[in-house]
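Researcher: Re-running this chain for the archive, since the previous output was lost when a drive failed. Same request as before.
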Amino acid sequence: MFGGQNMQQMMKQAKKMQKQMEDEQAAISKTDYVGHAPSDLVLATFNGDRELKDLQIKADIVDPEDVDGLADMVLVAVNDGLKQIEQDQQKRLGQFAPKGMF
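Model: Regenerated structure tokens:
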């Protein structure tokens, strides 16, 4: 068969890469990512599936006169956590896909 051996090797390599990718995705899902607001006044903890697991707000930031400030700190922490997940995905899975896919 012409190229049969090469095709078999390519399929083996593809299966190996698929397994590695699945392992990396599982590792990402199990990882906790903590987003931080300035001075750690708000911490937002996500799992790798982008589910918010915990939100901690320090009493120092709670001011009934400045609810918008608290909301801003929560947004900063949440966005920081999501950014960390994105960066880790690119780092771990980027080797398996064309640039910009993850």
